[in-house]
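Design review, sub-item: ligand-bound model
Attendees: FS, YL, KQ
YL presented the inputs for the uridine-diphosphate-N-acetylglucosamine complex:
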Amino acid sequence: MNIVILAAGQGKRMHSNLPKVLHPLAGKALVLHVIDTARSLAPQTLCVVYGHGGEAVRRTLDAPDLAWALQEPQLGTGHAVQQALPHLCAEGTTLILYGDVPLIRAETLRKLVHAAQGALAILTVELADPSGYGRIVRDGTGRVLRIVEQKDSTAEERRISEINTGIMAMPSALLGQWLGRLSNDNAQQEYYLTDIVSMAVSAGLPIRTVNPTNEWEVLGVNSKVQLAELERIAQRCTAEQLMEQGVRLADPARLDVRGELVCGRDVFIDVGCVFEGRVELDEAVEVGPNCVLKNARLGAGTRLAAFTHIEDAVVGPDGRIGPFARLRPGAELAGDVHIGNFVEIKKSTIAAHSKVNHLAYIGDAIIGSRVNVGAGTITCNYDGANKFQTIIEDDAFIGSDTQLVAPVTVGRGATLGAGTTLTRDAPADTLTVSRAKQVSIAGWKRPLKAVKK
Ligand code: UD1
Ligand code: CA
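KQ shared the predicted structure:
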């Protein structure tokens, strides 16, 4: 099988410098949705027809399994498929897809390809408002005769509600012959792919129509409004899939998955959360409201409180994170670690049962088990040029408002007094404190304001 994806159109109505098919839907370029669905059908040839601004499309998406056909200038959908022809295998079936119709499902395409055995198969839908689309013209017995474009149609033809979605499949050998016979003698002076329908009819080939299961599968994106509409549809589908797998969503309409979200049993996700890249939530994870997670893995039973932000980080089982916590790239927390409000962790490992509960910065650190890091603690990991490491061994207790000037090590079981500025290693099982000694001066009087006369 050949699959051709038409993606040369300009997309003027997007009002954007980004080529239309590169606009993201659920975190992935429109045309990449189509490419991935096409890949799932395992075609022999997968050819993308690109044009305006197309070098960016090619550069962004290039992969060894893709063939590229440049269409310049763009003279219509038939002309577009002509450009792909040299890449196509002459036998078998060819399936035509649009790069700006991203939600088409593989199952629908399989039905269409099946219908195209010894026939021309067209994906059609009946629309309450068919205006703008090519109409499916049938004879009195219901047999398809041809497709007429809106601009070439009569008033009577415009009353037909069955439209051409543009997605079709046909025997490759016949497609090659038909394309050579297209003319641009029509209202738009374009080479219409749709003209192959009457050619197939003349050749006595059966024309079969197939309908998608859902109307949204064939919706195209021409504007930012349509892009936003399809985004909602895509998100609703994702939310439904998650709920069918057993995930509890506080509100399926207030979830955004811009990548892949993999969930174990009994996961709960509150409102307003955004998931990007690949996120894994193990069994019974609870995500509080308004959390943002990107490329993260959360162990079983971990709970994120509201407004937690996690990127390229791993949290072990039974973690208690947030509210207002930030785990940056390279944060790796073992089981039962507690990270509280206004705590930032970067490129650091924290072993089991340790706590960093309030207002702290931990960067480039290795923290052992059962360590308690007090409020306001900061690892001073950066001298303006280089980064240095802080090591805090098991069972250490870091008093509040402590600065650990890296490179520095706090030994096992050590205690740092509050307010310590640690510049040399703190020995194990010892209290280290760098605070100035407290003095009380008896009889000291506050200065008085001078009395004006
Ligand atoms: C086309 C169909 C119409 C159908 C409609 C569905 C033709 C002649 N008409 O309309 O029957 O109802 O789609 O949306 O086929 N493209 C190219 N190169 C071109 C022209 C288009 O690659 O020279 C691509 C576009 O990027 C887009 C697709 O083909 O992905 C459809 O183009 P568009 O202009 O939206 O469709 P119409 O020609 O209006
Ligand atoms: Ca159009």
